[in-house]
Design goal:
3-stranded antiparallel sheet; alpha+beta; 17 helices; 8-stranded mixed beta barrel
């Protein structure tokens, strides 16, 4: 249904323009736009039918993106257009329509939530459109094409939408069936629990239709495939950890996909032809070139207490430092080293004054200080026991987060790797360095290794800065459309889903 006023008035200034100026006065962006266009109507003239139609179409399809359709009140807007009876009414309706358009444009292009208000560790800058520029752009464009251009174009967004559509169909059809109750299932097992496992794997799409009631090679292969998509050891055995994931409901998976879709809207910006992608929930770091993975390495992220969690943001990597020293953050001094330091321990740490000079410990009366007012820095020199290992990768930021090597190699063997004080540790830091340097030298291995052997702390500037995106995705797809799920190790997605639910920005199953 189009938005067509019952009575289209001539532009009777000053009544219309005065009422319009009054109606948009509390919105600086709209006030600027209408002032710059001399308060000419954009929506409510007879010549604006195409714009109204494009807006109606977009709002009627907003639910397909999990947007808060109730807050748009499309039916109320249509009714308001039918009931216009004065120039003042028309001006108010003009302002109402523009405000609704702006809200929709912001929601679809950059997200419904302001995440930092919900989770302080999400310090990402959202790509919010400038309201006046948005309005000018819409007025100058073909309306339907402009509305379509607001939808994120990253392939991940469309793949997530497809996965959500398919999962909603499965939920409408009854979900994945009963849950498994056996503690462990493996090859050779038979019985009701195997049949339940078989049916769930079929409904999830991991197993073709089969009537087998025994845990045969087909079920074992399907379980292994499931495990690969859920970061479990792909041994084909339905142990307790695997069954916990298989038993999760389709509704729980839909919640994860819903949050992932919102997160995609937050990152609706060019990510860089070459960029670094850190998925905290997946414990991996990747170098991406033209949306393909060039290098993939297992990672360790910040531990679970709030003050240790790795934040989410984007920045640009500008250099790497070989044979790095380690200057301890004040929080780590207080939490880990202060008692030992004041008792004469932690001898691997040098005390440094504000001029960068080493201060003899014998000259310091530690009883006069606390970690808060200690006037010195602590530094560990480069070496085999340095917590940063042999190299760190720098994208200087207000949160002092970076990527680095680590001497604690055993920790990379664990499944849930949340152990650091916030920075990202890489299992393959040398390969990571070689790949980064390959764009600026014919011998990246030789350059790095010769610098490493010098044992001198050396900074190597990157000829081209590389965008870095620290993300947290418990649900994501691959280029083939496969859907992967991870544990919500920080509990962030659970809180975000609750906020989306309160905002009415979730997929409702009727």
């Amino acid at each position: 249904m189009g938005l067509v006023p019952r009575q289209v008035f001539a532009q009777g200034f000053p009544a219309f323009s005065f009422a319009l100026a009054e109606s948009v006065s509390n919105d600086p962006g709209l006030a600027t736009f209408y002032r710059e266009t001399n308060y000419a109507p954009v929506w409510t003239g007879s010549e604006h039918a195409a714009r109204r139609s494009a807006l109606v179409t977009a709002l009627s399809q907003a639910g397909n993106h999990g947007l808060p359709t109730d807050s748009y009140d499309l039916e109320g807007l249509i009714t308001a257009y039918r009931e216009v009876s004065s120039e003042r009414d028309r001006a108010r309706l003009e302002a109402r329509t523009s405000s609704l358009f702006v809200q929709y444009a912001k929601d679809i292009s950059s997200g419904v939530l302001e995440p930092i208000r919900i989770i302080p560790q999400i310090v990402r800058t959202l790509p919010r459109p400038d309201v006046a520029e948005l309005m000018h752009g819409f007025v100058a464009a073909e309306p339907t094409m402009f509305m379509q251009s607001l939808v994120p174009t990253c392939p991940e967004y469309s793949r997530l939408l497809r996965a959500i559509y398919q999962l909603k169909e499965r939920i409408a059809g009854g979900g994945w069936g009963p849950q498994i109750t056996a503690r462990r299932l493996g090859p050779g097992d038979t019985g009701e629990s195997v049949v339940i496992l078989r049916n769930r794997l079929i409904e999830m799409g991991y197993l073709p239709r089969t009537a087998t009631a025994s845990y045969d090679h087909r079920i074992q292969a399907a379980v292994a495939a499931f495990q690969r998509f859920h970061a479990l050891a792909p041994n084909g055995i339905a142990d307790e950890a695997t069954q916990d994931e298989i038993n999760l409901s389709a509704d729980a998976r839909l919640r994860s996909l819903t949050v992932a879709l919102e997160r995609e809207r937050w990152l609706n910006v060019p990510r860089g032809q070459r960029h670094i992608w850190v998925n905290l929930a997946d414990f991996t770091t990747q170098i991406m070139d033209n949306d393909l993975v060039t290098l993939d390495t297992v990672s360790i992220i910040g531990s679970r207490p709030d003050d240790m969690q790795t934040p989410e943001f984007s920045h640009e990597m500008s250099y790497l430092e070989v044979n790095p020293d380690w200057t301890l953050p004040r929080s780590i001094i207080a939490r880990t080293y202060w008692n030992s330091l004041s008792a004469g321990g932690a001898r691997q740490l040098e005390v440094i004054d504000s001029a960068g000079r080493v201060v003899p410990r014998s000259s310091i009366d530690f009883s006069r200080y606390t970690p808060r007012n200690f006037p010195y820095s602590l530094r560990q020199a480069p070496g085999p026991t340095n917590p940063l290992g042999t190299v760190k990768f720098m994208f200087p930021n207000p949160w002092a987060i970076y990527l680095h090597d680590s001497p604690e190699r055993n920790l990379f063997d664990n499944t849930l790797r949340a152990y650091s004080a916030g920075c990202i540790r890489l299992q393959r830091p040398h390969d990571f360095a070689y790949e980064l340097l390959s764009r600026q030298t014919d011998d990246p291995v030789g350059l790095f290794q010769s610098t490493l052997r010098s044992q001198r702390q050396t900074r190597i500037q990157l000829a081209e800065h590389v965008p870095v995106h620290l993300e947290y995705r418990t649900a994501f797809t691959d280029a083939r459309g496969g859907v992967h799920f991870r544990k919500d190790v920080y509990g962030r997605d659970a809180r975000l889903y609750e906020a989306l639910d309160r905002a009415g920005a979730v997929f409702r199953m009727s």
